[in-house]
Write a structure and sequence with these properties.
4-stranded antiparallel β-sheet
Length: 421
């Protein structure tokens, strides 16, 4: 057997070099290998694939669903072997035992991950995992095994090629220990647990700012009044609803957008009692983001109409304030206009007194209000502290994000982990 580096590129090249046949046994595969396998299938080569398709393998970075679906959709007979860690590839009469690495783990270049098979091992593996080919393989291998055995013995006698084993480098070993001491390794079982649930669940921080616009009020500054009598001023409402028409219309566009936003949250997210923050199952994430993009487009599409609605309500509010002030000043004229009460132009005099007050009212800029109306989204991972929180776990079970069995696994792990500590 010869140790070798077989990265994705080398593996792809090996597959595409096939003249007649390929046997593949793996926990799972990704798109690069699926594409290479399909390329030889289209050329009429004999392709046999066995995988260990499981949720754990997918979550732990050994398998991609899209790659499996791609093979199956093109007529590749992908078979299942449960509880399997054995991996190998045989292309024509060349075979390697493989030691695949999770894609979640940081990759290392030039990592030795394959051992070349001899004909006897190749015969044994094909006979065991692909028994339908056993008789053909025995016929094919009988002569090969005899010739190969004699050749291998001769090579071993003549070849001094050996693994580059050497004493431990004490300096390097000390550096490793020092780095581990500074940044301790996560307990492997804890790491597995965290990988399982961080690939299944995620925090979502979603907010729709500026949507509660109908509750805004406008303040009439008391200092702007020509009246200083506190008793009289207290009779005047100095805070008025800015968007009264919108607030009273339950079918207005802004209310409908707010309802759609709340419906979107209810459909895809699990509330955890913290404002704007929720949990999402990653299996729902794609659908959630598609609907969110549609909702953003809808908000953008209606901006002009929203602008007109807000502008109209602000104008109406200004008129309403003028009417209120006019009535108030007519009933309680300040000293500077009292002498005009008997004149036919008294209403005009009041309006002139109102204008400086209106100018001092801080009406909002509609463009600014619309710019403040926006969706904001961010994600973050759950932590071990989250998984230790009983209320958090019970909430996940209640919302069917995890099963009772998964809850039991988390609880049991927590007990065992705390004891070990």
């Amino acid at each position: 057997m010869i140790a070798k580096v077989l990265d994705n590129s080398s593996l792809t090249n090996l597959i595409t070099s096939a003249h007649k046949r390929i046997f593949l046994l793996l926990p799972g595969l990704y798109n690069e290998l699926a594409e290479a396998l399909l390329s030889v299938l289209y050329l009429g080569k004999d392709l046999k694939v066995i995988l260990n398709i499981s949720e754990d393998n997918i979550r732990n970075g050994y398998c991609g669903l899209k790659a499996i679906e791609k093979l199956c959709s093109q007529g590749v007979q992908v078979r299942q072997l449960d509880n399997n860690l054995v991996s190998f590839i045989i292309v024509d009469d060349i075979g390697y035992l493989l030691f695949p690495q999770s894609r979640i783990l940081p990759g290392q270049e030039n990592l030795i991950n394959a051992l070349k098979m001899d004909s006897m091992m190749r015969l044994n593996l094909i006979s065991y995992y692909f028994p339908e080919k056993k008789k053909d393989e025995i016929i094919r291998s009988t002569q090969l095994i005899a010739e190969e055995t004699a050749m291998q013995i001769k090579k071993l006698e003549d070849n001094d090629n050996i693994a580059e084993v050497k004493p431990i480098d004490e300096k390097k070993y000390s550096a490793i220990k020092e780095n581990i001491k500074k940044n301790p390794v996560m307990n492997p079982d804890l790491n597995r647990l965290m990988i399982t649930y961080t690939t299944k669940l995620q925090y979502v921080d979603l907010s729709f700012t500026g949507i509660r616009i109908t509750s805004k009020k406008v303040k009439i500054p008391r200092k702007a009044f020509p009246i200083k009598d506190e008793v009289l001023l207290n009779k005047l409402a100095v805070h008025m609803s800015l968007f009264e028409n919108l607030a009273n219309n339950k079918q207005n566009l802004i209310r409908l957008l707010g309802k759609k936003y709340n419906d979107l949250r209810k459909k895809h997210l699990i509330r955890i009692g913290v404002r704007n923050k929720s949990i999402i199952e990653k299996s729902h994430k794609s659908d959630f983001e598609k609907e969110l993009e549609k909702f953003k487009a809808e908000i953008a599409e209606h901006q002009e109409l929203i602008f007109k609605m807000l502008k109209s309500d602000i104008i109406n509010t200004e008129k309403r304030i003028k009417a209120e002030l006019h009535k108030f000043l007519k009933e309680n004229p300040p000293d500077n206009i009292k002498d005009s009460r008997q004149l036919t132009i008294f209403d005009q005099v009041i309006d002139e007194a109102i204008n400086p007050i209106i100018k001092k009212i801080n009406f909002p800029n509609v463009n600014t209000l619309i710019q403040e109306m926006k969706l904001e989204l961010s994600y973050s991972d759950i932590t071990y502290d989250d998984l230790k929180d009983k209320k958090f776990i019970d909430l996940l079970v209640k919302n069917n994000a995890i099963t009772e069995n998964e809850k039991s696994e988390i609880v049991e792990f927590k007990k065992a982990y705390e004891v070990k500590k």
